[in-house]
TrEMBL record:
Keywords: ATP-binding, Cytoplasm, Kinase, Nucleotide-binding, Transferase
Similarity field: Belongs to the cytidylate kinase family. Type 1 subfamily.
Enzyme class, broadest EC rank: transferase
Pfam families registered for this protein in UniProt: Cytidylate_kin
Domain Cytidylate kinase: 7-220
Gene Ontology cellular component list: cytosol
GO BP terms in the entry: nucleobase-containing small molecule interconversion; pyrimidine nucleotide metabolic process
Compartments, as annotated in UniProt: Cytoplasm
Catalytic activity: CMP + ATP = CDP + ADP; dCMP + ATP = dCDP + ADP
Principal location listed in the UniProt entry: cytoplasm
GO molecular function list: ATP binding; CMP kinase activity; dCMP kinase activity
Protein name: Cytidylate kinase
Length: 225
């Protein structure tokens, strides 16, 4: 697999996109681009600065003043806003429950579009999100739409929170994920949906290795065309 591909992984919250994207990128020697972390960092900054979460113009103005960076490390990707590392604080429930409001603002998506496309321009990347194959990288070499049942996605998020020592309620997570699905699917700008040329992959019963192998098989098909 010598050709550096643009790989787009889309799907709802908790589908395992980030875990798979990181694992796949490491195995291939590709760069992992976590677009969700970018939107979370913007949401966190808005909450800290008191900027309205649905005030698109003000959010775009705030983004223009931010210095967002994704920095690889031995412990995974670290997220910075200027000199402040926000890797962990952007994963709190407060940010999780509000990021949909920020992400659906047209001005926000426009402000972050160039950054995401520039990061992916040379290929050899795995980018995950909710509208990568449909909006951010419509010409990606390989598009995969990952999903799983709400119950399974909540269980995964619960275990992740517990492993990090964060407070977590499984039933509440199920409600929050179902609501997040609804918000993401119904937003006017770049809603969550499967791209026409994306491969559908239900990960409910699959291990991490199983999902990675399935995507590698799809990559092989792309390269052999």
């Amino acid at each position: 697999m010598n050709k550096p591909l643009q790989i787009a992984l889309d799907g709802p919250a908790g589908a395992g996109k980030s875990t798979i994207a990181k694992t796949l990128a490491k195995k291939l020697g590709y760069v992992y681009i976590d677009t969700g972390a970018i939107y979370r960092a913007v949401t966190y900054r808005a909450l800290q600065d008191g900027v309205g979460l649905e005030d698109g113009p003000m959010l775009a103005e705030m983004i223009d003043k931010m210095d967002l960076r994704l920095v690889p490390s031995e412990n995974g990707q670290r997220v910075y806003d200027g000199t402040e590392e926000v890797t962990d604080v952007i994963r709190t429930s407060e940010v999780t429950n509000n990021v949909s409001f920020v992400a659906r603002q047209p001005e926000v998506r426009a402000a972050l579009m160039d950054l995401q496309r520039d990061l992916a321009s040379k290929g050899g990347i795995v980018m995950d999100g909710r509208d990568i194959g449909t909006h951010v990288l419509p010409g990606a070499d390989l598009k995969v739409f990952m999903t799983a049942t709400v119950e399974e996605r909540a269980r995964r998020r619960h275990e992740e929170n517990v492993s990090k020592g964060l407070p977590s309620d499984l039933e509440q997570l199920q409600l929050e994920i179902a609501l997040r699905d609804k918000r993401d699917s119904e937003r006017e700008v770049a809603p969550l949906r499967q791209a026409d040329d994306a491969h559908y992959l239900d990960t409910t019963e699959l291990s991490i290795d199983g999902v990675v192998e399935a995507i590698e098989h799809l990559m092989k098909q792309v390269i052999e065309r």
